[in-house]
Amino acid sequence: MARLLATIEHAVKKPIWDCRMCGQCVLHATGLTCPMTCPKSLRNGPCGGVREDGGCEVDPTMTCVWLKAYDRSEKMPGSWREEFDDLRPPVDNRLQGTSSWANLLSGRDKAVPAGWLPDEPSHGG
Ligand code: SF4
């Protein structure tokens, strides 16, 4: 069932958002711009390498994904606009290829690395 859901999700989202099946969809918080299309796969951006013309430092032929995400998020309604400003946790590569819909339903997409949440005890000493 999970495999079928992933297949359907990919078929729907690939043509529209160039979805890379990260398994933790944040499209609603990025102005419907897939952050995994950033050559650095940044979940928070932009990085410091944006060119003066808005081009990506890795691939100058493309506009910075995060500049597009910002512009688009300005047009999003309510909380979707506000969520652009949230700090997103690093992507969990163990979910690569799985359905973000299934992970949303199970809550698996909300699991974050140890030490990520501000009220967790520090392990760094
Ligand atoms: S954030 Fe992940 S699930 Fe969402 S469109 Fe991008 S790759 Fe696909």
From TrEMBL:
Alphabetized Pfam families for the sequence: DUF5981
InterPro entries per UniProt: DUF5981
Highest taxon of source: Bacteria
Sequence ranges assigned to domain Methylene-tetrahydrofolate reductase C-terminal-like in this UniProt record: 5-78
Name the UniProt record assigns to this protein: Methylene-tetrahydrofolate reductase C-terminal-like domain-containing protein
